[in-house]
Specification:
Layout (H helix, E strand, L loop, with lengths): L7 H14 L3 E3 L2 H7 L6 E3 L6 H9 L8 E5 L8 H10 L4 E5 L6 H4 L5 E5 L6 H5 L4 E4 L6 H4 L4 H8 L3 E4 L14 E2 L3 H12 L8 H9 L2
Parallel strand pairs: 1-2, 3-4, 3-6, 4-5, 6-7, 7-8
Helix pairs in contact: 3-8, 4-9, 8-10
Length: 218
């Protein structure tokens, strides 16, 4: 029900019916597991993963750019923490913030900053060539929404497939990987500091090879 274009009541009723009549339920996060547990008996968690070889290509690709790049790909909708992204853009005018994906909300806020580049949607096949020039990858989701509490973000594993540095908000599903594979903060200043640390290579996240190895396990 956190997605646009869903008929809430019908979706909820059918979801409950599906859960109560299923012999087995697979949830992709703890939050969804806890909801399913109210209606179903046999539940297991299978979290998201990545097509490692596809995104690993980004590690091998050449790229030519004049300025550092902080990047994000994915939808920009009501669960997107635009405030964090704009704060980074404002405090780091020497850095380009590249956003790839459909923008259904907050366009006017993002377009106020010359160093925020909205590239629109790109085909899945084209994502590695963009990921290649990202110096730091963002997962700036609004963690107050149930949708994000329920989300195990696929892009976390995709970014790691290319050995990238990641800075995210405090997404519950990423807690086990905090300060190892991802920096996390809901505070604007701390979020910005993490981005700066990663850009300046003064972070202490896992090395590139360890990140790729972790991605291969997922």
């Amino acid at each position: 029900t956190g997605f646009l274009g869903t008929t809430t009541n019908v979706l909820k009723e059918n979801c409950i019916k599906l859960l109560t009549t299923s012999d087995m339920v697979v949830a992709s996060s703890n939050f969804l597991h806890d909801i399913a547990e109210k209606y179903a008996g046999n539940i297991t968690i299978v979290r998201n993963g990545t097509e490692v070889e596809h995104f690993y290509k980004a590690k091998e690709m050449e790229h030519h750019k004049e300025r550092p790049v902080v990047g994000y790909y994915g939808a920009v909708s009501h669960w997107f923490d635009w405030g964090k992204v704009c704060y980074v853009a404002e405090k780091m005018p020497q850095v380009d913030v590249v956003i790839i994906g459909e923008v259904t909300e907050y366009r006017e806020k993002l377009e106020k900053y010359k160093n925020i580049k909205l590239l629109g949607e790109k085909k899945y096949d084209e994502l590695p060539k963009h990921l290649a020039y990202f110096d730091v990858c963002l997962i700036p989701f609004d963690t107050s929404t149930d949708l994000i509490k329920a989300t195990n973000p696929v892009k976390f594993y995709e970014y790691l497939s290319a050995g990238k540095r990641i800075v995210a908000t405090e997404i519950p599903e990423l807690e086990p990987y905090r300060d190892e594979y991802v920096y996390m903060s809901n505070d604007n200043d701390q979020f910005l500091k993490y981005v700066k640390d990663c850009l300046e290579h003064s972070d202490d996240l896992k090395d590139v090879e360890s990140c790729v190895a972790f991605a291969k396990e997922n």
